Amino acid sequence: MSRLASIIANPSGLVILQSSVSQTCLPILHQILKPAERPSRTLLFSFLYPPSSLIETLTSDASSISIFDYTERIPGYDTWTDSRQDILNAIKSAPPGPLSVVIDSVDTLASDISSDSQTFKFIKTLFNLISSRSQPSVLVLHSLACSFLSLVTQTALSPTLTHVIAHPPALIEHLITAYSTFPPPAGPAEKFWSVFIPISERAPESRRLVYGPGGTGTCAGAGNNANEFVVELIIRGVGTEGGRRTTERMLEGWGGEGTERLERLGSLKALLSRKEIDVRYHLQKPLDPMQNVPFNLHLTKSQEESRGRVPLPYAHQSSATCSTIYYEPDSADDIDDDDPDEDLDI
User: Fold this and answer.
1) Helix/strand/coil (H, E, C) string of 116-185?
2) What is the pLDDT of residues 229-271, one digit of tens each?
3) What string of DSSP letters covers 202-259?
4) Are β-strands 65-69 and 13-19 bridged in parallel, bridged antiparallel, or unpaired?
């Protein structure tokens, strides 16, 4: 079982699902909200997407999931009321047992509250309330990329964290074709992450690859590769050695209804196939800087011989091993055989 599949089947602690304008993470949220084999109660608080778009059937699993639709609570309209106390009351009144609390989307909640600090304070109170339950419980936050995410990913909220970030496959394709940088294990991990992280954090770069010329024009893929995307997993935990925190970062693929290996994604299959990697990466010859220029930079054999016969002005032919310096003093030099300090009796 892949790491992402294990997280979906048994989420724990704090889980953050991050979407962007370039790539949505909703298919993973759909899977988390599906009925689980384990006995668990789920509370879904919807602020952005209607619950009907997140759950396939709203009535068949009424005993295991409670839905709170706050999409019509919009600040500035008569229908808006602060939802924070309602959320806390719903969690406090939840029956004993494992509990999954899902908020979609926490960036919308932060926008309604109009304060990142107040939203963080509320999320921390919420997480402490969930963590204090006797049975293992989980808080799942879905959000678009925003400044508030930098607060909830800090260790001040939770020492452990599972951060799931969705990326368009076009980003990996761009790194391979433009930078000759393959994701591990096809290429060195250090090189890949040093290039991938700064580029992935630049949202305009991903938007250009998706919505620019040659892009799919949609955050959900297109054609046969619809609903395929790349998942970046950042898993922070507490190590067994000395209690030090450990952080893992890895990439997995998502295809249709479940996890896939990157090389099996339709949009990346040709680039990440073993044959292609051997040709373009492992057995790649050094690039010739004089290739594809509009003029000839190479020398013929006769030109190389003529160049070798040209005497170089700095190449001394003398075999002498010692040298002599001849110096003629000028009028400003004080050269005198007499000792100017002879009367000092030193």
Assistant:
1) HHHHHHHHHHHHHHHHCCCCCCEEEEEEECCCCHHHHCCCCCCCCEEEEEEECHHHHHHHHHHHCCCCCC
2) 999 999 998 654 555 678 899 999 998 778 988 888 888 888 8
3) -HHHHHHHHHSTTS-SSTT--GGGTTEEEEEEEEEEE-SSTT-EEEEEEEEEEETTEE
4) unpaired
Going by the DSSP 8-state scheme, the letter that residue 344 receives in this structure is G
Does pLDDT of 140 surpass 70? Answer: yes
**What is this structure's pTM?**
0.75
Q: What is the largest CA-CA distance in the chain?
A: 117
- Nearest alpha carbon to residue 182 among 66, 303, 278: 278
| Helix or strand run (H / E) with residue 192 | helix 189-200
- Helix 189-200 to helix 169-179 angle (10° resolution) is 120
> Are 220 and 53 spatial neighbours (Cβ–Cβ below 8 Å)?
no
Q: Find tokens 């919420």 and name the residue.
A: 126
Percentages (nearest 5) of helix, strand, coil residues in the chain: 35, 20, 50
The pair of structure tokens assigned to 237 is 């935990």
